[in-house]
Amino acid sequence: MRGLLKSMGVTLSVFARKPVTRQYPETHRPLPERDRAFPLLLWDENLDEPFCTGCHACERACPVECMTVLMKDNPAHRSQGGTSTRRKIIDKFWIDYGRCMRCNICVEVCNFDAIGMNNTWQGHEQSVYDRADLIQDLPQLLAEHKAGDVKPWIAP
């Protein structure tokens, strides 16, 4: 009998607590300041072109080989009458988010600071019905940084 009363006391104390459930689609938990989701490409607003030159350093360093990079000559280079100092620029770039393990190695090896980790909720919520939809191409990888949604992390 004593055990039954004790267990009912625990049940009533839990019943009296405030709920801790968040209404997920409407309310998100705050992301940690240094949290990282998936990699994306950064856009150079001064030259109106991506920072990436297609050097393949990220592709070679990726442990799961989820990136594919193709480069071409930059039509906006100074030798061709443009204003850019970059001789090469990316032609095509794909990242398979289904294979990416978010290790941050691609960001560390990039010589041009052209790759950043997405620090927004859109970077985390990548649910799709078909795995083929997780392959991101160049316009998709540049879209969030062009729109100004991704904020650079500044060390405290």
Any overview of this molecule?
The strands form three sheets. This protein has a three-stranded antiparallel β-sheet with strand order 4-5-7. It has a two-stranded antiparallel ribbon with strand order 1-6. It has a two-stranded antiparallel sheet with strand order 2-3. The mean pLDDT is 87. 25% of the residues lie in helices and 18% in strands. It is α+β, with helices and mostly antiparallel strands and 156 residues long. The protein has one domain (37-147): Alpha-Beta Plaits, CATH 3.30.70.3270. The protein contains five helices and seven strands, in the order H-E-E-E-H-E-E-H-E-H-E-H.
Quick structural gist:
This protein is α+β, with helices and mostly antiparallel strands and 156 residues long. It contains five helices and seven strands; from the N terminus they run αβββαββαβαβα.
User: Rg, please?
Assistant: 23 Å
CATH-defined topology: Alpha-Beta Plaits
Helix vs. strand class: alpha+beta
The CATH first-level class comes to Alpha Beta
- By DSSP, the count of extended strands is 7
Low-confidence stretches: none
Quote the average pLDDT: 87
